């Protein structure tokens, strides 16, 4: 076997350790939406967490902006095989938003303006793993990419990152959302290639 030299970074370029199996890096930011882009004015925008009591904890846009805002740099992985490295966002951590929500249920259904849904276990939304993001790359989030605000759960395939997120509703059991009902994996870990089931 001959060893082909591709420059000193050749080997790591062949398999960048940040890129999960079966994924290819992209430079652009593809848009993937199952329906039309809803346009929501921040004056009318609301976000709620709904625990089993049925009493929602609701934020207006101003109230969200008054929460602790974090800057996040992270890689994102779409099940359609693209990975985008080092994306930067600003948003509010779900740790902050769940801080005074009382729940003993373990699963969450994210609901979006426009009707999209996706399910995520609560423990995968906490401990610095998920945000309600409203800026991408230093600019207000484009409506196409989920503006004014979207969920980001970067350690799972990007279909879990609900654009135009409107509420997180607690569930006792893990129920499938929109794509999960059409054959996408219930969990969606890109490192385990949990694409379909
Ligand atoms: N509301 C909503 N959120 C959504 C989707 C959608 O169709 N509607 N598509 C999902 C899928 S499959 C992906 S890959 C990402 C795409 O986000 P982007 O368009 O910003 O790249 O959003 C996810 N969130
Ligand atoms: Mo996707």
Short description:
With 197 residues, the chain is mainly beta. Helix content is 10%, strand content 30%.
The end-to-end span amounts to 39 Å
Q: What percent strand?
A: 25-35%
Biggest β-sheet strands, sense, barrel: 6 strands, mixed
- Identify low-pLDDT runs: 1-12
- Please tally the helical runs, counting DSSP H or I stretches of 4 or more residues: 4
The CATH top-level class label? Alpha Beta
Overall geometric form: globular
Q: Give the cofactors and ligands.
A: ligand MTE, molybdenum atom
CATH architecture: Alpha-Beta Complex
Q: What percent of the residues sit in helical stretches (DSSP H or I)? A: under 10%
What is the CATH superfamily?
Oxidoreductase, molybdopterin-binding domain
Count of separate structural domains = 1
Mean pLDDT metric: 94
- The run of helices and strands is HEEEHEEHEEEEEEH
What is the fold named in CATH at topology level?
A: Sulfite Oxidase, Chain A, domain 2
Query: Which value, in Å, is the CA radius of gyration?
Result: 18 Å
Number of strands: 11
Query: Which secondary-structure class do the elements indicate?
Result: mainly beta
Keywords:
197 residues; mainly beta; six-stranded mixed sheet; 4 helices; globular; disordered N terminus; binds the ligand Nc1nc2c(c(=O)[nH]1)N[C@H]1C(S)=C(S)[C@@H](COP(=O)(O)O)O[C@H]1N2; OxRdtase_Mopterin-bd_sf; OxRdtase_Mopterin-bd_dom; Sulfite oxidase-like oxidoreductase
